[in-house]
Amino acid sequence: MRTRREFFRLVxxxxxxxxxxxxxxxxxxxxxxxxxxxxxxxxxxxxxxQGLLVGCAVVPERLxxxxxYGSLVAxxxxxxxxxxxxxxxALRPAPDKFDFRGADEIMAFAAEHGxxxxxxxxxxxxxxxxxxAGTVTKENAQQFLIQHIQTVAGRYAGKMQSWDVVNxxxxxxxxxxxxxxxxxxxxxxxxxxxxxAFHAARQADPTALLTYNDxxxxxxxxxxxxxxxxxxxxxxxxxARGVPxxxxxxxxxxxxxxxxxxxGLQEFVRELRSMGxxxxxxxxxxxxxxxxxxxxERDAAIARLYKEYVTMMVAEPNVSAVxxxxxxxRYTWLNGPKYGRADGKPQRCLPFDxxxxxxxxxxxxxxxxxxxxxxxxxxxxxxxxxxxxxxSDDPYAPFTPKPAAPRTVPQ
Length: 411
Ligand code: G3I
Prior knowledge:
9 strands, globular, alpha/beta, 38% helix, binds ligand G3I, 411 residues
């Protein structure tokens, strides 16, 4: 039996969001999402109104094989990113073979629904096919990397909003002065693999925005501040060498039980803007595995984090896209064996729950998208490049993060 205080807390938490008209809870998982979040009430419509790209990671088999999933993706976002279909492991069944079926399905779905696509990813230390270790050597690694990028980015040239060219290459714990992560590409080619990948991508698709994508750079913890600094130094080095790089992807795998990102990340985004760089929120989801409480209480905390984080990010003029890593809890990677809740309950980490119903996080996210108008940021265009105050012109000079200013979350 709940106490009066618990009941009041539940009601006030639930009252914080507009009433959600739930579809009839049938066994049929294809129960369509009610119209109250479709059309001009969708994330897509609100993002279009702000000139913002709003997207999600998708899986091709579900786009075509699961009507409720496909219709949700079609109505809610204007930008798709393959969760796995454009990774090496999916594209490369053999050293001399490419399998584009999944990737092509995503491109076709996007074309049918007037959506853009961002590619993920051309070079990563994970999702490497089994044949790689026994086939790729120091002698042929450059050729394999360039050929992969020329073939994959070349296939979709002119159709991609952006590419994650290199993913997660920074690891401050690697012990290297440049903090590059130990990876097969670093071992086989050396540190230049990164600029090699970006040059090959620009040559293969001159129109896509070339992106460096990473995680654990969001929070104001010593480790994440250090990693952010190393990412900035990498970008500075690449730009100093004339490497074509246009954007940084901030993956944004947040946790509702951590202190929320704030001034340190704002400073990072602004630093990148002064370097002429755009920023994308590339893989947003909220891990709540350690959160106790009822569904209503958990939902309220998750929604608050969506509201605060997306409001803060879209207030920055050079933040031009926000993508969640999936759209429904039904298929989130966070409900896998490694990241699931100890109590076995499904994580509620995305805008739509496992029954394709809009969670409170949906409404919070949509409100945050609207806040871009009030913040006056109208385009994702990065500022013209100018010298970054507080750091020397030497691109190899250590980046010294300024002490965190008091957090300001734009109203
Ligand atoms: O497709 C194979 C299937 O044929 C096989 O039977 C099955 C069992 O081994 O594996 C399937 O591949 C799995 C793939 O997801 C597709 O489901 C891989 O094992 C599995 O490792 C892979 O996990 C993905 C992971 O990246 C590694 O690529 C997750 O779905 C995906 O959400 C996750 O996404 C990453 C981003 O790319 C980068 N940022 C972090 C993010 C979360 O880890």
